[in-house]
Amino acid sequence: MKLTTTLLLLVLSSSAASAGTGYEVTSKDGDRDVTYMVNFGGGKLFEQHTAYDPDSKTFVYLTWPRRGGKPPVPVARIWDHETSRTIELFKFPTAKHPLPVIPGIKAMKVCPKTGDPNFKAVSKLAYD
Q1: Using an 8 Å Cβ cutoff, are 40 and 102 in contact?
Q2: Where are the domains positioned within the chain?
Q3: Phi and psi (nearest 5°) for 2?
Q4: Which end of the chain has fewer CB within 10 Å, C or N?
């Protein structure tokens, strides 16, 4: 019984790890609430990068097939003088300029639409 429970938990956690998640984000813009959806991660058949395009003020996505598809390669790299990290930039189909990937909701320290560091993100969608 203990082994069955352990195996079941392992299967469930491994399938959840490959699934993407959609978040409803709510932030403040002065006295006004701003709410929108953003997705991170891919599914069983595809992988996906997420970025924020400041020109269009929208989140953009770069998707490729998991099987037989090649992950996109960065089109440029920049050095961040504040962290001393090299940041890879990718060409997203609907964005004019290359953008850095946002790896997940926890990596967002401020709302890119409002600049609110106290934004709230609630998981609303799981896709696979």
Answers
A1: yes
A2: 18-127
A3: -65, -40
A4: N
